[in-house]
Design goal:
The protein is an all-alpha fold. It has one domain (about 1-60). The chain contains 2 helices and no strands. The longest helix has about 35 residues, at about 25-60. It is elongated and about 60 Å long. It starts with 7 loop residues before the first helix and ends in a 6-residue tail after the last helix. The model has no long low-confidence stretch (mean pLDDT about 90).
Length: about 60
């Protein structure tokens, strides 16, 4: 289960490059835009992870006494 997150890396790279390539034609702007888009996607995923983690802490029962 812990290794499944690595599948997101090539997906993020591919989505960022395709998204950037639809906006620009020259390679330099494509790479710059792809880096920004990739950082945005990773940041968004991290924020969602933190939110879900905090919700799971609130919902899960504590240890029985």
């Amino acid at each position: 289960m812990t290794g499944d997150l690595w599948y997101a890396l090539p997906l993020i790279v591919a989505v960022s490059l395709v998204y950037a390539a639809t906006r620009h034609e020259a390679p330099a702007p494509i790479l710059r835009h792809a880096l920004r888009a990739g950082a945005w996607i990773v940041s968004f995923m991290a924020i969602i992870f933190v939110i879900l983690f905090l919700v799971s802490l609130l919902v899960s029962p504590g240890p029985s006494a």
